[in-house]
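Cont'd.
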Amino acid sequence: MVLVMVFVIGVLFAGATYLILRRSVVKLILGLMLLSHGVNLMIFVVGGIRRGKPPILGVTEQLTPDRTTLADPLPQALILTAIVISFGITAFVLALAYRADQAIGTDDLDKMTTTDTF
Amino acid sequence: MHNHLYLPLLIPLFGALSAIVFARKRRLARRIIIATIAGHLTYSTWMLVSFATNPEVPRQVAFAGGWAAPFGITLVADPLSAIMLFLAGLLMLTTLIFGFATVDRRHEHFFFYPMLLLLLFGVSGAFITGDLFNLYVWFEVLLVASFGLLTLGCSRGQAEGGLKYVVINLIGSTLFLIGCGLVYGVAGTLNMAHIAERFAGLPAGEPTFITVLASLFIVAYGIKAALFPLFFWLPTSYHTPPIAVTAIFGGLLTKVGVYSLYRVLGLIYNGELPTLSPLLLILAALTMVAGVLGAVAQMNVRRILSFHIVSQIGYMIMGLGLASVFGLAAGILFMVHNIIVKTALFLIGGAAEHISGTGDLKKMGGLAKREPLLAGLWMLAILSLAGIPPLSGFFGKLVLLQAAITQGQYLIGLVATVVSILTFFSMLKIWNEVFWKQLPESAQEPQRATPGLVVPGAILVLMSLLIGFGAGPALDYSTLAADQALDVAGYVTDVCGATGCEPPALGQPVDPANMRALTMDIIPEMDE
């Protein structure tokens, strides 16, 4: 399972890098979205994947917390936060890209050089 | 428990919300905004004073939701946080005064000032959080506010600069998030005190996976702080929005990155700091040189100043790279000086740009005769930036150089000195072109400077003078702050109590009344 996930994460990162290096703003944004998915999956794997284990134990139970008896609930909370944040920011970036397209009249990053200093 | 730590977060948040609600009543909204900033500034001044007068309480801690550390989110304020909070409030106040004088009605109509308050909200949160993932969230809060401020109005320049700023900062945040995830995987916790405690138990000296993690954080924060070679977004975007926005960004935002580097490398990766010190010093030197040389080629007030932000970041990283209490104290003192003076320069240069109607040096001139007060303030500010006594810049640089030389790092000392001279050269270029030379024939007649344009810069130049004359106490305070920032054991004790953050030993039955921990203990596996 972990091996599959690692492969998926690698593909997501590679695709994201490729898209971010493209000249089109839309592809750049798609790349950012892929990147955030890759990172979310990475946090999921890093936190440890355990099947069929409870995330929380009762206070009265004998507590022997280790990787075999317990699933870690925290990575999902982290991922949820990260998803919400990246969702909001993606919406903003899309709106900005639309406005930029109206103001500049191009989708090509190589033509957006009027504010550059080099 | 110090629940007053929520105040610097709640004050700007509620201020921003009520200012949005009453946005149609312009005067009322402005009063709410001024009251909010005044409240924040009063609180942070009180905190600054309370650390100075009560040295036996070096940190104040609040547990969100009553969850004791290392669970839940912890807010921790120490002298370094207090300094940064105070400066954030002060900068906001001056930016606000300047904004009232320069920002047009349409910006105000579209929530310009509430967004400034939300920026303050995010920045304050970043300064007092004691949780790594929470720091990421605060970064996003302040980034979203800064995106809004930078692109509000969306002229062509803003769209181009803003897009680059947004994308590179998102990539920086993503790297930070990767770092958070990996730290959680390695340490099994996100509370800074707990991570620091667990990392402190690892063998020091040899480069390990932790060193790689620390480098990842240097890259992530380096993007935010505009460290070489990750600074190209800054001079591309910072000159496009209204002047008030550039001033607060230039003074505050990059320094949030520097603060996070100080905090994370000083606390969590304290053991890695000696290993990373040469890398940091090289990056610092390259940042200084690249920034100052970039500025030489520019012929626009705000573009020149933007490059100098980059160059000055190098000095702050140099303080961290020296990896000692004295070095970090010097870095903190320099950062305080630089935040104040850099914003002063943006506000004064921005005032000159505002009354001239252009930021192009070739089309400006003759302001020394027309606006002697503005010219005098500019002269004082550039003398301070260059490091002439008795202004704050002299002491900031003196202490940094002293720290470098006592630790035998002569090369970085030499670079810092040469860059200082080049800095003064390019500041004098602005002086000559904007203030000293005659107004070019073709240029339009400048307007008169109103008090709202001059007062904010004057307040900050006065602060620079004050720090210069009170350099002894200022250095004492930054030494205190550096001492606390590097004191891992003290931090852990203050946050988690004398027994440390570790839960009861694995496999032992836990007394429900005393139950604290259910964290995955993964660190022992790493040693295998």
